[in-house]
């Protein structure tokens, strides 16, 4: 079979239109797992344990829907194409579920949370997997893939800033008014369909490089035999776990260790704002050192900068703000570079297997992200409890508990990051190897 011509370098305008849907999509995740539990508990008198059980069940459903939608994203096609069509068909469910969950009626209860929370999780997975696969296949160039990823992740960070700001600007005190979560509901319900339609209209369907279709057994066999993917996946899991640890402990570190209640919002905002600036910095660095080296350098710097947080204590909130800005810049590298490396890894699989299966690979990517979050919560909180730390409001903490909090927050993440650096520093799939793979595909 004669392969199609290589994809051209994507213009900034094309990258912009592709990235726009990431803005409302990013406004879904943070409210779902950070604001929704406390809001439903306070507004509808639902026990936190019951809410936690529902959210855990939704996570278990994710374990089924991630590989299912990854497989479907590589199989289903329509008049708009394999990626664009499957992506566009998911948007009505995602937009409706977000609207219903974030702006619940006055008589909402646990059943409403379970129904629309599950619908939103399914819809968001259905939307995200073909969307990220679309971006991975949009360009063939080693460095151009970083640009496409950077545009998407930059939009994701802006959406995260909106998700942090809008609920608190709108207020969360009353459920029978146009509260802060309702702002998010309207934003997603209106902007997501418009952004998705604009992207499908203005951004082309990527070339499908498949020359055969694999059975499920063959597909899994090739995935397990893709050594660059296994190495990248291990590094991504380790680094994601390292990032999830301080994310899980952030509020406790600020309020208990630094004794700075009220600083959580401004510090988080400065962190994500710095990450927006870090994305173009990651593009610039990777163009000079290569993607895997740029990512490794950023992780090394993050270890050095973040280690200082373990030495901070009461009254050091201003110093911690500087650390948040510095590590936020480096977060831009974590967001922009690994997905661009993943696109190269998929090339390796396509050459060997004959089928381009970006959907399945990004489903594995999604599973790794969620596994890292689960590992963080399952390891860190029991260790904090063993040190005598109390999560009760206004609880008095012992010196031992505060020391353990500082060590877990700042120093424990260094170990998995160092392991990730060791895996990626001599990563075999560099620019020269990627060009060789593209030649074979052509």
UniProtKB/TrEMBL annotation:
The keyword Transmembrane applies. Keywords: Membrane, Transmembrane, Transmembrane helix. The chain crosses the membrane at residues 12-34, 40-64, 85-103, 109-129, 150-169, 181-203, 229-255, 267-287, 294-312, 318-337, 358-384, 404-427. One of its GO terms (molecular function) is symporter activity. One of its GO terms (biological process) is carbohydrate transport. GO terms for cellular component: plasma membrane. InterPro entries: MFS_2, MFS_trans_sf. This is Major facilitator superfamily (MFS) profile domain-containing protein. Belongs to the sodium:galactoside symporter (TC 2.A.2) family. It comes from the Bacteria.
